[in-house]
Specification:
The chain has about 475 residues and is mainly alpha-helical. Helix content is about 65%, strand content about 0%. The protein has a two-stranded antiparallel sheet with strand order 1-2. α3 packs parallel to α8, α8 packs across α9 and α17 packs antiparallel against α18.
Length: about 475
């Protein structure tokens, strides 16, 4: 009798599927997260799609701009249809590790940017172990895991050259253009009133900030794409229309941080062209450090406390901007209220922080009444509205140092790659990716959108593209021609 023995790969798949099924059921019960019960199905679905993973990734990009948040009656929440697809792609990547390691580029996984990302995630996991509410931190990290795997690792497998990027761009651009038209049309019915802006992009964006930041990161990519096609071609005319509509969308979003990020990207464009970006980055970091030192010295920040009765929401945009300059509009005052709490929390736990996802559950005990506003009840459960402070609160000074290193390295790679490439298409591509990343870096000084679908996911994808652009340059020594 001949004994049939399973191949090592088949055994790996069997045991991995078994362990995942048990672990997912356990996680679903412990974390009260029904999505984990679908893990075995996602694993099998990923196995079936492993040969067609590129199409699934491009499908993910296509549905990303129009993804909507879903909240179940039991408190369960997800983003549809993107989050289930991200989970499937995460398991697809796991299959690659088990079955097709030969297609995984070692140079990609050992790139300095990838290594810093490993360190960033590992430190988050370490700080989560010491969090008071470890379950909350673990749920936060699990969601972060499929964000990173789907857009950084799988994105790195898919978008390797200019042709791949063109497909990725159109997958994002077409739905973004349609959603911008949809939002502008809705806003037109309200005569573009500032007071009605948050109604215009529902249900595709949570608020005007998420919408405007996403349009801002798409703008450099779209401007770069306009150079890919001949004059009067339908592609060029459509892209030029898209540039106009994106700019209108950003303007009528009435989002100050988005306007600032577009202006910042324009300045960064000039700095990159003259090879001055990195000195400007370090000068900015030093300026921020001195500003923070000044504000905390002798409690100088108390001099900027607003009057509670004047800190209101303005329905007129000109009044809103005027109150912004005097720090008396409610959104600016509420940000300061939380930033002050964040500083007190950092003082309490400067090394390990409170753990990932822990700010909301702890900050009320560290607030200062002098900065309180009428929306300080925080019924929407939002966080610091400054991602740099959020990381420092939740991961300590080591966490923010790792994050700052990652951002500086991204910008340095963007600057050096732009100088290396001679091909104008690739130079433009590097410039667009770097500027889009800069819009995110600027916006997260006033928000926490790295954790948000559409914006945070694009951030990790841009990292993967920069790595692949450098690897492409190293392979071709800048002699490679563009293949469409």
């Amino acid at each position: 009798m001949v004994k049939l023995q399973a191949k090592p790969v088949e055994l790996n798949i069997f045991w991995t599927a078994t362990i995942l099924a048990i672990a997912s059921m356990f996680a679903g019960l412990m974390l009260n997260e029904p999505l984990f019960f679908l893990t075995p199905i996602g694993f099998l679905f990923a196995y079936q799609l492993i040969l067609n993973y590129r199409t699934i990734f491009f499908l993910l990009l296509f549905v990303t701009p129009g993804a909507t948040e879903f909240y179940g009656a039991s408190g369960f929440s997800t983003t549809l249809p993107t989050e289930p697809i991200m989970i499937v792609l995460m398991f697809t990547f796991l299959f690659f590790v088990l079955m097709k390691r030969e297609i995984l580029d070692k140079a990609f996984f050992t790139h300095p940017l990838a290594i810093i990302l490993y360190i960033h995630f590992t430190w988050m996991l370490f700080t989560a172990i010491f969090a008071d509410e470890i379950v909350i931190s673990l749920k936060y990290l699990l969601a972060k895991t499929w964000f990173i795997v789907a857009f950084f690792y799988v994105g790195g497998l898919v978008i390797k050259n200019f042709s791949d990027f063109k497909i990725a761009f159109w997958c994002l651009f077409v739905p973004t253009l349609l959603l911008t038209i949809y939002t502008l049309n809705n806003h037109l019915h309200y005569q573009f009133r500032f007071s009605e802006v948050n109604k215009t992009m529902v249900p595709f964006f949570r608020n005007h900030v998420n919408y405007a930041v996403f349009l801002a990161l798409m703008l450099p990519l779209t401007i770069a794409a306009s150079r890919w096609y001949k004059k009067y071609s339908w592609q060029k005319m459509l892209i030029n229309l898209g540039i106009l509509l994106l700019m209108l969308g950003i303007y009528f979003s009435y989002t100050r941080s988005s306007w600032l990020s577009v202006a910042g990207a324009l300045v960064a464009y000039l700095l990159i062209k003259h090879n001055k970006l990195i000195p400007a980055v370090f000068a900015s970091i030093i300026g921020v450090i001195f500003f923070v030192i000044y504000m905390v010295s002798n409690n100088n920040y108390l001099d900027y406390a607003p009057e509670y009765t004047k800190t209101i929401y303005h329905s007129n945009f000109s009044d809103h901007m005027e109150s912004t300059m005097s720090l008396e509009d409610v959104s600016s005052a509420e940000r300061i209220y939380r930033w002050v709490a964040a500083m007190h929390m950092i003082e309490e736990k400067p090394v390990l922080g409170f753990g990932p996802g822990q700010f909301y559950f702890n900050y009320k005990a560290y607030t200062t009444n002098k900065f309180e506003t009428y929306i300080s009840r925080n019924e929407e459960h939002s966080t610091v509205h400054n991602y740099y402070l959020q990381i420092t609160v939740e991961q300590g000074f080591i966490g923010i140092a790792i994050w700052a290193t990652l951002l500086v390295m991204i910008l340095w790679k963007g600057q050096t790659l732009y100088n290396k490439f001679k091909d104008p298409i690739y130079k433009g591509l590097v410039m667009a990716i770097t500027l889009s990343t800069i819009t995110i870096i600027i916006n997260i000084s006033l928000s926490d959108l790295i954790e948000a679908d559409k914006i945070g996911t694009c951030f990790f994808m841009f990292m993967a593209i920069l790595i692949n652009l450098e690897l492409y340059y190293n392979r071709t020594k800048n002699n490679g021609l563009i293949t469409d």
